[in-house]
Amino acid sequence: MKNIILGLLAGALLSVIPIIRFDEPEVILPEWEGSFNPSLNIQASPYIKDGNGSFSVKTLSEVYSLKTSGISSSAPVPEGYIASTSGNGQYFALYQKIGESVDFYDITSARFWQKKSEQYPFVSFNAKIVLLLVADHSEVKILDKNGNQLENRIAGRFCTNISFSKENDYAVIGFLDGSYYLIDENGKTIHSGKTIENLPVKTASVNINGSFLAVHFGNEKKDYLKIIDIKNSKDFISQLPNVSVTKTAIDINNDGNSVIISGDQILFFSNKCKTIAVYKIPEIRTGHTSAIMTGDFAALSCMNNTGSTVFMFSLENGLLYNRNFPDKAIDLKNSGNVILARGTSNLYCLSYSR
Questions:
Q1: Residues 6+ apart with CB under 8 A from 86
Q2: Total-model pTM
Q3: HSE-up of 143 (CA within 13 Å, CB side)?
Q4: Hey, how many other C-beta atoms are within 10 angstroms of the C-beta on 21?
């Protein structure tokens, strides 16, 4: 009986002691590095197990499909031609600055189609649509993967932005007259709108499932960010603290949270376009910037006085990582938790885990 009473007392005491939960730490790890000038030179990582993810990397003479481990396949780019690649690295279109056709290939160099066209092609992530921008930037024509021109055409006064979602094939197109359009994988317009006072669209981003848009717009005096909730037909606007003359780094996740570089600040916004975090960039030079945001994780790059800096954040714990690189410009891409930083001559691969 005594033991039963002691057991009940111990159980009662344990029930009121708070349970302390230790979250797993967020970790950024370098996986591999390499160069691609003049040719790709990477020692593949033995630690990354490749899934379906891959990246596109192009040079003047080659198009590469790069697995997350660093294993690659490639196709040649003939002299005098320019390649426009799909985000997954599996397809590309060839064209010339002054040419009469667009040719569409997969990474094995098998040609799918040739289209008589003087327009510049932009290939979506999985190559389900190809956008053709006319020479005066006043119209965007839409082709499907088989090279068939779709009925939908997008027009405005000078196109300033064409960007695609990661993993899926949504496209957002913006114009100098303040108009913007969201296109789905079938080439249909599923949303369109205008900025306040018809101010020029400078940069725009669409999330993976096409449910949120982030539109950066303004003039030489004021800059704004507009978040559009497609499903609920709502939009929210905030003025940015600094003016980016043209494009800047911006991305938006599936919760509608976004990140943007505004002057010397990295700003995080909620899905109602309210500032939720600010980070002051110690050293930044006007030039190329890049951003990716997936879930609560974000990575950004900007130019500094000697090269470029890459920053990585989580919304919960703030700055996780920053590193200076010698490359004059770095473009960021991700496949799952693997991040590819493409410099002017070098490639850097890192992974994020928790």
A1: 56, 92, 123, 124, 125, 126, 127
A2: 0.90
A3: 24
A4: 5
